[in-house]
Amino acid sequence: MARKRRRNRIPQEAVELSIESLNHDGRGVAHLDGKTLFVSGALPGELVTAKYLKVQRRYDEALVVDVLKPSDKRISPKCEVFGICGGCSLQHLSDADQIAFKQDSLIDMLKRLGHVEPKAVLPALTNEVPWGYRRKARLGVKYVQKKEKVLVGFREKGTSFITDTRVCHVLHPHVGQLLEPLALLIAGFSIKDKVPQIEVAIDDSQCILNFRILDAFSEEDLLALKAFAEEHKLIIYLQTGGPDTVEPMQTQVQLNYSLPEFAVDFDFEATDFTQVNTDINRKMVSLALKLLDPQAGDKILDLFCGLGNFTLPLARHCKEVVGVEGDADLVDRARINARRNGIDNTRYYLANLYETIDHEAWNHETFDRILLDPPRSGAFEIVQMIEKFKAKKIVYVSCYPGTLARDLDVLVNQKGYTLEAAGVMDMFPHTGHVESIAVLSKK
User: Do 324 and 351 contact (CB within 8 A), yes or no?
Assistant: First the structure.
């Protein structure tokens, strides 16, 4: 008979801690009785009191209650629920200090985990305005019976509770200013306790709110929702089950974003993966092409190509681009977007890049250059056999420096590439999320 796993008891009393450094996700690092604590809302050099959130075997997690001795780098956060809400973690640092932290965190991970160091550190890509940038989000919704109130927002740090938020400054204003009105709208529904989340998708001119519902709306609910949508210029979708159940409440719309520098634009669906930050995405694509330096006669491989965010701009500057992606809907969207932009020098393949791909036709071709843009899990399987493509240059776009460091370890220390440069791109200001880019070459 298997033993039940005993839960570690969370201490209820606050503790006084001296903060030594920041960890990779922006939490303060302290030690108490020989054990590491990661403390949300704390900065190096500070003396704080903190309450425990979680007790783990190797480390504990805590949240600042009071700052007894502040760092000279601490600033006043813009958001009134900063420190409670899990949506942001770095609003107490200036924009410049956030960038410096992310750049240092990236280089440290490359050295420590990847045993690599770039010959040059790229200037960080930053936002013109680091607020209201987030165009895609999943918001939690909860009817709290004791308070007779609906909450809409991100979850609290370390809990499953929804943060009581009136305004979110990182969400696009079209939605960030509507959290309280949305909560009041849902509170009037007949199924106010059966709406667990709202997914946000915003393009250059339209805003979709996809309501996940566990029961059917009444006619009165639908009328109220329609009136709210008309008042606030929203497009409402409803989702009764998995992703395949998403339907428009009235008319299907086509979302679109553009990359003016390359004269391309992209149609996408509300459920498609697209970058959340349009400003940084445009700068990122421009930088990636500059680093990859495509030539007119090149054949380029774009791995984890999605709906063609890099593929189509690359196709404007080379002979051919081969895009490979594991999501069938995105592959279809990439082909459609190529046609609508009049681009005919791309090929697309559906393939799981985490499995054996020996049978894939494109896997037996050679390429002049490669662009990698994997999800958080990285591209470990691909980099193990990257030499077969004989590419002289690789640009790697990463959303997690831990897997980037792991993969660069293979590319540099096993496959003979040189890490020419690396740097951060501030895709998610005020959070500990580190988006980065690296360029490698081989003679």
Answer: yes
CA 220/CA 55 separation, integer angstroms = 46
> Chain-wide mean pLDDT for the chain?
95
Q: Could you tell me the two tokens for 350?
A: 């559906």
Q: Which domains does the chain have, with CATH numbers?
A: 15-74 (2.40.50.140), 99-129+255-441 (3.40.50.150), 136-202+207-248 (2.40.50.1070)
pLDDT band at 25 (very low <50, low <70, confident <90, very high): confident
Asked if 295 and 318 touch (Cβ cutoff 8 Å), the reply is: yes
Spell out the long-range contacts of 60-65 with Cβ–Cβ below 8 A and sequence spacing 24 or more.
60/35, 60/36, 61/27, 61/37, 61/158, 62/15, 62/17, 62/37, 62/38, 63/39, 63/157, 63/158, 64/28, 64/39, 64/40, 65/14
Token pair 């033993």: residue: 3
- In single-letter form, the type of residue at position 116 comes to V
* 344: DSSP letter: -
The span from the CA of 186 to the CA of 224, in Å, is 9
User: Shortest CA distance to 128 belongs to which of 277, 330, 341, 318?
Assistant: 277
Amino acid 251: pLDDT: 83
Task: Tell me if 242 sits within 8 A of 230, measured CB to CB.
Answer: no
Query: What is the Rg, in whole angstroms, of the alpha carbon atoms belonging to the chain?
Result: 24
Structure tokens belonging to residue 144: 């709290």
Q: What tokens were used for 401? A: 């420096």
Lowest mean pLDDT among 125-139, 191-205, 296-310, 356-370: 356-370
pLDDT reported for residue 1: 42
Q: How confident is the model at residue 7 (pLDDT cuts 50, 70, 90)?
A: low
Beta strands at 320-325 and 346-350: parallel, antiparallel or unpaired: parallel
**Count of other CB atoms within 10 angstroms of residue 97:** 16
The residues that are catalytic are 399
CA distance 352 to 424: 27
SS3 label, residue 60: strand
Coil, strand or helix at 284: helix
In one-letter notation, the amino acid at residue 229 is A
Q: What is the mean pLDDT of residues 252-259?
A: 93
Helix (H, G, I), strand (E, B) or coil at 150: strand
pLDDT, tens only, 74-96: 999 999 999 899 999 999 999 99
d(CA 338, CA 75): 46
Categorize the per-residue pLDDT at 360 as very low, low, confident or very high, splitting at 50, 70 and 90. Answer: confident
Bridge partners of residue 171, in order along the sequence: 134
> Mean pLDDT across the stretch 270-295?
96
